[in-house]
Amino acid sequence: MPPINAPNTPRTIAVFDSGFGGLTVLRELLPLLPGTRFLYLGDTARLPYGAKSQQTIARYALSSAAFLLAQGAEMLVVACNTASALALEEVKAALPIPVVGVIEPGVAAASAAGKAASSSASVLVLATSATVQSAAYTRACLAAGLNAYEKACPLLVPLVEEGWIDHPVTAEVLRIYLGEALAAAPEVQTLVLGCTHYPLIKPLIERTLTELNHPLHIVDSASATAHAAAKVLPAAEAATPTSCTFYATDSIEKFQRLGSAFLGRELPSVELLDLGG
Ligand code: DGL
Q1: Ligand 1: does its nearest atom lie under 6 Å from the Cβ of 128?
Q2: pLDDT per residue over 108-149, tens digit each?
Q3: 131 lines ligand 1 (CB under 6 A)
Q4: Disulfide engineering: 14 pairs with which of 73, 170, 227, 267, CB 3.0-4.6 Å?
Q5: Which domain does 256 fall in, by range?
Q6: Dist. CA 133 → ligand 1 center (Å)
Q7: What DSSP letter does each residue of 135-204 carry, written as one string?
Q8: CATH no. for residue 97?
Q9: End-to-end CA gap in the chain
Q10: Is residue 277 part of a domain?
């Protein structure tokens, strides 16, 4: 194997998520970092992380990160909001390479939007139950001078995975979640999509907010994270073709079928991986 920094050797960037959702981050990274060797690991056998404890999420995230490091990753993007909220510090401490999570970039984008709108901006964050319980978004928002209201939306991940991205049941569930959140925090001006799956239902979220007469500026942390990662490890000078290697810890067939909706293109091949329990 050539040394990592040899001329003409592409950068290797690893993206990790509990499943398919992190492909929305990879989708944003692809045009930003042409000529990169991307590794993507979806820990589908242990999905969902959003309903698990901090200890379990950290254990899963560390084993996934160790595997990607062993494959030559020079940077790790933790594309999973739940893993970023509950295990980013452990992963950073364990890895000798830059590690980028999704929370800080998402909050920075919300802060930029909020400053444009008002000096005392308030942010609504939709996320999994574990992410909300961790209050990681609230802490990051406070550090950026923003008030945050976090709303757990546990039904959205299964609905998106079912492919119900423009479906009356998902619309009704969103009406309930957003109605409750806006009743509790009517002052919010910005909405952060604090889960990998939510960019897929962004049009439905926008429609629901319009119906509720409460349009909000929507921040997609997938795009903000990709831009943050591209700043940490810019594309190498040499023009090499972009490559993507996909790993999943459960059904390859399901990963290819669902993954293409998240990535916006076909997934050529996926390798099955056993990371243990
Ligand atoms: N990837 C997770 C997140 O962004 C959602 C799916 C899960 O619960 O594992 O929070």
Answers
A1: yes
A2: 999 988 664 554 579 999 999 999 999 999 999 999 999 999
A3: yes
A4: 73
A5: 12-101+225-272
A6: 14
A7: THHHHHHHHTT-EEEEEE-TTHHHHHHTT-TT-HHHHHHHHHHHHHHHHH-TT--EEEEESTTGGGGHHH
A8: 3.40.50.1860
A9: 31
A10: no
